[in-house]
Structures are given as C-alpha cells and as structure tokens.
Design brief:
binds magnesium ion; two-stranded antiparallel sheet; binds adenosine-5'-diphosphate; 15 helices; alpha/beta; globular; Rossmann fold
Length: 339
C-alpha cells in the first residue's frame, strides 16, 4: 500500500522530527543559507518558522545589511513561487492584488492575478506604500484571501509575506498602523555587522562576483509538497499545560498581570491574543526544527522578543527616558517565572 507521507505524519504524532521526510531537506536549506549569509542565522530561523506556521516577517534594518539578499536566497532554495514588490508612494492596491482586464478575444473581463498570488512575497520598503496598499496587504496576510470587485479569492499555501523597512527614514513614508503590525508573526531588527563579520561578507561577495553560476543559479533543495508535510508535522509538536501557562503569563505580563506589574507601567499598548497564538505556533515549529517533539519553556523565552516587539507600544515617558521595547520585554522575561 502506498501511504501518503502527510497522513503518516498525522497518524504518528510522536515520531521523532528528524525521521520525518521533510526534516532533512529543510535542514539543508538552513545550512545552505548559513554559508551564503554572514551572521544572519537568527533571521533564517525566523523565516523557516514563519514558513512552517503561516506567519509573516517584518525585517527592520539600515540599507545594505542583506535584507533583500536573505529573502531572495531563501526563496530560491525552496522551489515555490516568489515575487518581489518594491513599494513606492504611487503604488495602487490593484498593482499587488491584481485586477479585471478586458480581453478582446473572449470579449469579457478576466481576472489577472497580481503579485500577492505567490507563495513568498517580498515587500521591500513596505512603509513607502500608501495606506490603501497596506490595507490590501493586511487582508491578504490576515485572512489569506484577496477581495477585488466584490469577489474573494483564496491564496494558496504556503503564503509568506516578508516585508522590509528602513528605521532611519521618515520622510515620504507611511508608518504601518498597529493593526497591520499585529499581522506579522516576527519583528526582526538587523544591525550593521561587526568588523569581523564585515570581513567575511567582503570575502563572500568577492568570491561570488567571480563566479556567475554561484550568484544566479541556486538549485532548490525542497518543494511545496515537502513544506506542506512539514507544516502538518509541526502542528503535532507537544505543547504541555505548563508551557501554555507560561505563554499566557508572559503575554499577561505585558498587560500588568502577575509579575509584569512593575515593568508594564512603561507599556501603553499591550500584546493581543494573536501574540499568544503566534508564540505557541512558532515554538512548535522551532522545536521541530531543533529535532524535538515537545516545546520547552526556553523556546518561548527565545522567541518572545521577536514576537512581542512590534506589538507593544511604550508610553511617552518611557520613550522620553530612552527605554526601548526590547529592554522592556527582557525585563518582563526576567520577572516572569518559566514554570
Ligand atoms: N550578512 C551578510 N551576508 C552576506 N552578504 C551580505 C551581508 N550583509 C551585506 N551583504 C551584501 O551587501 C549587499 C547588500 O545587500 P542587500 O540585500 O541588497 O541589502 P538590503 O536589502 O538590506 O539593503 C549585497 O551584495 C550582499 O551580498
Ligand atoms: Mg533591499
């Protein structure tokens, strides 16, 4: 009998992740990216977790720190549809969603799908897109569907939006509204590299520029079917009652409950239930990628800063005192007991 691997994963939830047919290919993607990107392992892990859970990633960092390169390389290794949208102030919602076009042959309007109908969508400089475009993006990210001209169309899985923005620029930008930020699973901040890393980057890029094949022709290591199988397996990773309680304690701490009482006075907007859900799902994927069939409290503590960061707003006094959101989250993590 020919068993479908996805049903196998379903019927054997306790099977060790490393024995799953999708495990090796995804680890290969991870290590291939580690050789092409210097010091960006954390970003790569966040992208893999988002891919395995239906999450989206917002990458913030100055120009030239390989934001675009990371997403490009990631998508090339996966053999799924990939598109890059350069956000500009004159972008229209139809430019990303698609639109009805009149075709002379058929004499009627047919829907021409826009770039959002891809599996991985890189939205470069997302805060340069006008609000209407951002809200079209929001529907796609939140509901995995697109409505144009009164017709709603579902987006195929996996659907991962990786958006980038430059934190320094403010002129001519439209900061993402809070409702939009909550749609991202992860907020990753990239910084300028250390001197040591800079030297490795230089060597890496110089060695590639002499070898055109290395620069352009990355062969894919996995495909859509494998990714979907891995997603199934991730959903079976064990989340104990104790870990669930820890998630809720941590998110509750941003609202001033329990241990967060003192620290949370700096917070003017606390994390929503979407934060707890994202923490739970992301920790399952992180544990699976780590070869474990259960989530540990450490998974939650490791992921929490990048999940909570964009969802919490500090009040004006904390901001005036120069406190950062990440500082506050670290204090909450220290104050909240893990078990
Ligand atoms: N950490 C890094 N690892 C590998 N290459 C890097 C790294 N940081 C910068 N680069 C190189 O710097 C250049 C700029 O990268 P790019 O992805 O266009 O930056 P960004 O999108 O952040 O502006 C590319 O040639 C890239 O290869
Ligand atoms: Mg770029």
């Amino acid at each position: 009998m020919n068993a479908d691997p996805s049903s196998l994963a379903k019927s054997q939830p306790t099977k060790c992740p490393s024995e799953h047919p999708a495990y090796a290919p995804l680890q290969q993607v991870r290590s291939a990216l580690a050789t092409q990107l210097v010091g960006l392992d954390k970003l790569v892990d966040r992208l893999l977790v988002a891919l395995l859970t239906g999450g989206h990633v917002l990458i913030e960092g100055p120009p030239g720190v390989a934001k675009t390169r990371t997403i490009n390389r990631f998508a090339q290794l996966l053999d799924i549809q990939f598109v890059r949208i350069q956000a500009t102030p004159d972008l229209l919602p139809a430019d990303i969603t698609g639109t009805d076009m009149f075709t002379q042959q058929s004499g009627q309007f047919n829907f021409l799908p826009g770039p959002l109908f891809h599996h991985i969508v890189l939205v470069d400089e997302v805060n340069r897109a006008p609000p209407k475009v951002q809200s079209a993006l929001l529907e796609a990210m939140g509901e995995q569907q697109i409505t144009t001209g009164g017709v709603t169309r579902a987006l195929e899985e996996p659907f991962l939006v990786a958006a980038t923005q430059n934190p320094i620029e403010h002129e001519g930008t439209y900061p993402l509204p809070e409702a939009q930020l909550d749609r991202f699973m992860f907020f990753v901040n990239l910084e300028l590299p250390s001197v040591e890393h800079e030297r490795q980057i230089l060597d890496q890029v110089l060695s590639e520029s002499g070898d055109l094949s290395q620069r352009c022709a990355t062969t894919a290591l996995t495909d859509r079917q494998t990714i979907l199988q891995a997603r199934q397996a991730v959903q079976h990773i064990f989340l104990s009652e104790a870990v669930r309680d820890y998630i809720v304690r941590l998110v509750g701490a941003t609202r001033g409950y329990g241990a967060g009482g003192q620290v949370s006075t700096a917070i003017s907007q606390a994390a929503s239930p979407r934060a707890s859900i994202n923490l739970a799902q992301a920790s399952q994927a992180a544990a699976w990628l780590d070869g474990r069939d259960f989530v540990a409290p450490e998974d939650i503590a490791t992921l929490a800063p990048d999940i909570l960061c964009g969802r919490i707003a500090l009040d004006y006094r904390a901001r005036a005192a120069g406190t950062s959101t990440r500082q506050v989250i670290n204090e909450l993590l220290e104050a909240t007991p893990r078990v």
